[in-house]
Write a structure and sequence with these properties.
The protein has twelve helices and 19 strands. By secondary structure, it is α/β, with parallel strands linked by helices. The strands form four sheets. Strands 4, 6, 7, 10, 11, 18 and 19 form a seven-stranded mixed β-sheet that branches. A six-stranded parallel β-sheet has the order 14-13-12-15-16-17, with helices on both faces.
Length: 358
């Protein structure tokens, strides 16, 4: 089968090969024919080494498709079922799962260290234990979540990561209050989903901050009340909040510099929500006096900060009701052979989400 492979961490191009085989099928596993996958910035971060991932590997973790085969012991899934990929499945038995914090379950992370593809040259890993830039993938059954028939594959793929992450940051982690003021720093697909989540919560002002003009324009279409470049943020803070700062500020870039800007843009007693995935060696710092005196809440948000299965259902319900726009997030569509075009689109900031049709 065909798959896009990164041979070494740090390379900026993928090679589309036709000699890759999905491996590991057996009890408790399912084989999925991928139909659509989104390109998430985390894929780029794994390629350049910001996020740890063994190589060679097949990127992609935001996918949807249909079940081709079901291993022994699997219940609730049958051949032909339409599913989205959950890259961080809950095991149900660890301390995090028992506390109800299923998004903190580490079982899914362990899958990233087990190869799930092979080719004549050796074994190949799948990013985050999945690897959706491939025609087929074998994963644990709890990674495959059935989707209703009215949800297109490309929409389901986005719900599998970026949409759930962004909406959840606003609804689950920060719990944006009605009539509040919000600033979102970084307005790619996840940042736009944060904006839509804040709008669904009833925020009065939603300020989108991004260096790319096209993304600022897009943010206005998705519910931002104003969009500014990073060097205009201080003026927006003074003008909109009287210099006090915003009630909620979301950092959706994954860098300590922007996290620090977000902290300084948050009002005393307000909430800074860190959504971006950053590097192990990039440290965010606050001094002990300001931490005590300003009483700002610093809330990281992993995968939307809540039960992902319920988050999927909520995203579908909001989409069906017309409360969020998911089709509009897909700004580009490419075939698997054109995957490097998708990488260029994300690096340049011209895309919100590129859908790769497998």
């Amino acid at each position: 089968m065909r798959a896009a492979v990164l041979h070494e961490t740090g390379q900026d191009k993928l090679e589309v090969l036709d000699d890759v085989e999905a491996m590991g099928f057996g009890p408790g596993k399912v084989r999925i024919r991928i139909r659509a996958t989104g390109l998430c910035h985390s894929d780029l971060s794994a390629m350049n080494g910001v996020l740890p991932q063994p190589a060679p590997f097949v990127p992609g973790h935001e996918g949807a498709g249909e079940i081709l085969d079901v291993g022994d012991g699997v219940t609730g899934l049958t051949q032909g079922d339409r599913v989205l990929m959950c890259w961080l499945p809950a095991c149900g038995g660890c301390p995090s799962c028992k506390r109800g914090q299923t998004h903190l379950c580490l079982a899914g992370f362990l899958n990233a260290g087990t190869p799930n593809f092979r080719r004549p040259g050796g074994e190949v890993f799948g990013f985050a234990g999945t690897g959706t830039f491939a025609e087929e993938v074998v994963v644990a059954a709890n990674c495959a979540v059935p989707i209703p028939d009215d949800v297109p594959y490309e929409i389901a793929a986005l719900i599998g990561c970026g949409v759930t992450t962004g909406l959840g940051a606003a609804l689950n982690t920060a719990r944006v209050a009605a009539a509040s003021s919000v600033a979102v720093i970084g307005c790619g697909g996840v940042g736009i989903s944060v904006i839509q989540g804040a709008r669904a919560c009833g925020a009065a002002q939603i300020i989108a901050v991004d260096p790319v003009a096209a993304r600022r324009e897009a943010a206005l279409r998705f519910g931002a009340t104003e969009a500014v470049a990073p060097d205009e943020l201080a003026d927006a803070k003074a003008r909109i909040t009287g210099g006090e700062g915003f009630d909620y500020v979301f950092e959706v870039v994954g860098r300590s510099a922007t996290a620090r800007t977000a902290y300084e843009t948050t009002r005393r007693g307000g909430t800074l929500c860190v959504v971006g995935a950053g590097a192990l060696d990039d440290s965010f710092q606050v001094n002990m006096f300001e931490l005590f005196f300003d009483e700002k809440r610093i809330l990281p948000s992993l995968y939307g900060g809540g039960d992902v299965l319920r988050s999927y259902e909520r995203a579908i319900a909001l989409w069906r009701a017309g409360r969020i726009d998911l089709e509009g997030l897909i700004t580009h569509r490419v075939r698997l052979a054109e995957v490097n075009d998708a990488l260029d689109q994300m690096r340049s900031g011209t895309s919100l989400r590129t859908c790769i049709e497998i």
